[in-house]
Amino acid sequence: xxxxxxxxxxxxxxxxxxxxxxxxxxxxxxxxxxxxxxxxxxxxxxxxxxxxxxxxxxxxxxxxxxxxxxxxxxxxxxxxxxxxxxxxxxxxxxxxxxxxxxxxxxxxxxxxxxxxxxxxxxxxxxxxxxxxxxxxxxxxxxxxxxxxxxxxxxxxxxxxxxxxxxxxxxxxxxxxxxxxxxxxxxxxxxxxxxxxxxxxxxxxxxxxxxxxxxxxxxxxxxxxxxxxxxxxxxxxxxxxxxxxxxxxxxxxxxxxxxxxxxxxxxxxxxxxxxxxxxxxxxxxxxxxxxxxxxxxxxxxxxxxxxxxxxxxxxxxxxxxxxxxxxxxxxx
Length: 331
Prior knowledge:
The chain is mainly alpha-helical.
């Protein structure tokens, strides 16, 4: 497969996964804002922290209101990580490889892009419905991809992009809760604290599966354990790392009989580290520090993937594809 094609497939799925996650974050925060007691911390600014864009947001929106956050994350075309920007860049990558993806995939991503332009009917809907339409549009693309794309290298690079982005977002939203959202010890265990943990699970699409799996009350330790270490929940970090490892092994169909290189070492070390650790050990050593190290490792893994599979002198990077490392999402 050409480096350019693999790169585009990878980023199409990263961008759409990013857009879906941000729409989910905003959708749940809209509901949470209605339930928060008067005088409580706003549920908005932590979303900007979760995307790693706080510095650029503060510069562009000094007042930092809830409307500013929504516009910044949803509509701001100057923000490369806004929903409309992510979908636009995913469409541009898809346009460049229309002969590789299926017609149904192209039609879905093209429709989603044009439906978000100014003056379209989606913006006449209530805010919650706008976000729900965007989220469903991304999920429909995943379903169409699963149903129509052959399980070849195109499929593998698509999966790789989706899993990399998902692992990053799950870890970031959990880190926000632990480190930024409620740092005051007196608030731990209160009504607002429990509401925020429930909101966190809903943000990750994990509330029902958590209830079925854990079958106990909502505690910080059990939520962190589920989102980080659950082996079968598709948005947990461990599940994503297992999928990333399996996908990379399939891409490298013929094992090389030599010492593993940096990519192979990091892939195996990441999976082992997060498969054979207990949540108590992570919390004792500092959960924020563990998540911060995970995000750095994911950045390194991305750079190594890019170096091995995407860099080609014959196919220079297009303007719609970011440079090595997840700089736009590095806190």
